[in-house]
C-alpha cells in the first residue's frame, strides 16, 4: 500500500510541475507578444521642420530695478526756521525755482553789523585818502617830510584793504541771506516733503526730495548669446508679464492715456560694457525707458518682458519643441519615424520660436505635440504642420 501511496504522490508532483512550467511558458509568450505589439505600435503626433524664420528677440526678467538720473534732495544751506512752502507734493518744478522760505534771527543782525562796518571803513578810507593827498601835495612843495608822506600812504592803503574786507563780509552775509530761499536742484516733481512749516533745521538738512521720472534707466546682465544682435541705440518694447505687478512708493500721478498693465513702454540701449567690438561672455547693458505714461517709479518691479523692435532671420524651432526649461534638448524624428533625443545649443527666442545655434540642420523634423511619455527610440507617425 505504501508503494502505491508514494507513486501517487510522485504522479501528483509531476503533474503540478508540468502545470507550473506550462504557466510560465504562457506568461513568457504573452509578455513577448505584448512587447512585440508595443514595438510595432505607432503613436500619432504633430511636428515641425527646422527652418529659417524671422524672430524678434525677447528677454524675460524676473526683477528689474529702475532708477532716475535726476533725483536728489533739496538741502537747507543755512540754519533757520521754515516759514513758508511755495510748493506741494507732486508739484512740478524747474531747477532754481524757490520752493521754501526760511527765517533766521542771526543773519539779519550780522548783515546789519556788516553794513555798519562797511560804512565805518568807507569813512575811514575817505579820511585816509584826504590825508594822503594833502601829504602828497605838500611833498611836492617840500613842505613835509618823506616820513609823514609814507605814513599817510600806509594808512591810505590799509584803509582800502579794510573796505575790501568789510564789503566781502557784507557779501558773505548777503549770500547766507539768499540761502534762506531754498531752491530746487533739478527739474522734476516734488516727491517728498521732509519738513513742515515752523520747524527749525540746521544747515545741511534735506527738506524735500525732487525727481524727474519722465525717463528712467535699468541695468541688466547679458550673456554674449543674447547680446549678439544688439547695438547702441537699439529699440525695444518693455511690458509687464501676466503675473507682473507694480505699486508706487512715491505716490506720483499717472499720465492721461496710459494703458496700465497693457502699456508697452519704449526702451533704448544707451550703454553696453564691454563694447560689442570686444570679446566677452558677459556684458552689462543700460537701457533708458520713456516713462511719459508715468506708470513707473524708481523701484524694483517683477515680471517684465523686453522685446526687440527689429527682427532677425535665424534657424529656429517652435518653443513647444523644447523638451526642457533650459532649451537644451529636442526630439528629432528620422525618415523611418524613430524618435532621437538630441542635445542642442539655443540662442535668442521670442514668443513662438527659439534660435538653434548648434545640434540641428535645416529641414529636420522635431516633435511639437504632447511630448509626455515619449522616449528615445519609439516609433511615431508625425504630422508636420506649418508653424
From TrEMBL:
Cellular component GO terms held in the UniProt record: efflux pump complex
Keyword Transmembrane helix (UniProt): yes
Keyword Metal-binding: no
Chain ranges of the Multidrug resistance protein MdtA-like barrel-sandwich hybrid domain: 79-210
Matching InterPro entries: MdtA-like_BSH, RND_pump_MFP
Coiled-coil stretches: 111-169
Full protein name: RND family efflux transporter, MFP subunit
Organism expressing this protein natively: Selenomonas ruminantium
Lineage: Bacteria, Bacillati, Bacillota, Negativicutes, Selenomonadales
Amino acid at each position: 500500500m505504501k508503494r502505491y501511496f508514494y507513486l501517487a504522490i510522485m504522479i501528483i508532483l509531476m503533474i503540478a510541475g508540468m502545470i507550473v512550467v506550462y504557466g510560465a511558458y504562457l506568461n513568457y509568450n504573452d509578455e513577448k507578444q505584448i512587447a512585440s505589439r508595443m514595438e510595432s505600435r505607432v503613436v500619432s503626433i504633430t511636428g515641425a521642420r527646422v527652418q529659417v524664420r524671422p524672430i524678434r528677440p525677447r528677454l524675460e526678467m524676473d526683477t528689474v530695478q529702475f532708477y532716475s538720473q535726476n533725483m536728489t534732495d533739496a538741502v537747507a544751506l543755512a540754519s533757520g526756521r521754515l516759514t513758508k512752502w511755495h510748493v506741494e507734493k507732486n508739484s512740478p518744478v524747474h531747477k532754481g525755482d524757490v520752493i521754501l522760505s526760511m527765517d533766521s534771527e542771526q543773519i539779519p543782525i550780522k548783515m546789519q553789523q556788516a553794513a555798519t562796518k562797511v560804512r565805518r571803513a568807507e569813512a575811514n578810507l575817505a579820511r585816509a585818502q584826504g590825508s594822503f593827498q594833502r601829504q602828497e601835495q605838500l611833498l611836492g612843495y617840500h613842505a613835509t617830510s618823506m616820513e609823514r608822506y609814507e605814513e599817510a600812504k600806509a594808512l591810505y592803503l590799509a584803509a582800502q584793504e579794510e573796505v575790501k574786507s568789510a564789503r566781502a563780509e557784507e557779501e558773505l552775509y548777503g549770500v547766507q541771506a539768499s540761502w534762506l530761499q531754498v531752491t530746487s536742484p533739478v527739474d522734476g516733481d516734488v516727491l517728498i516733503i521732509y519738513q513742515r512749516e515752523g520747524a527749525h533745521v540746521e544747515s545741511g538738512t534735506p527738506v524735500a526730495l525732487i525727481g524727474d521720472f519722465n525717463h528712467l534707466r535699468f541695468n541688466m546682465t547679458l550673456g554674449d548669446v543674447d547680446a549678439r544682435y544688439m547695438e547702441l541705440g537699439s529699440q525695444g518694447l518693455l511690458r509687464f508679464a501676466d503675473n507682473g505687478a507694480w505699486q508706487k512708493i512715491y505716490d506720483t500721478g499717472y499720465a492721461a492715456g496710459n494703458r496700465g498693465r497693457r502699456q508697452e513702454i519704449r526702451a533704448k540701449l544707451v550703454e553696453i560694457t564691454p563694447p560689442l567690438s570686444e570679446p566677452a561672455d558677459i556684458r552689462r547693458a543700460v537701457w533708458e525707458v520713456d516713462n511719459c505714461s508715468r506708470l513707473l517709479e524708481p523701484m524694483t518691479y517683477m515680471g517684465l518682458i523686453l522685446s526687440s523692435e527689429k527682427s532677425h532671420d535665424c534657424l529656429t524651432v517652435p518653443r513647444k519643441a523644447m523638451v526642457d526649461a533650459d532649451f537644451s534638448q529636442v526630439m528629432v524624428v528620422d525618415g523611418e519615424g524613430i524618435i532621437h533625443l538630441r542635445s542642442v545649443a539655443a540662442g535668442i527666442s521670442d514668443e513662438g520660436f527659439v534660435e538653434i545655434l548648434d545640434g540641428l540642420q535645416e529641414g529636420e523634423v522635431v516633435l511639437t505635440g504632447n511630448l509626455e511619455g515619449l522616449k528615445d527610440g519609439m516609433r511615431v507617425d508625425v504630422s508636420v504642420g506649418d508653424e
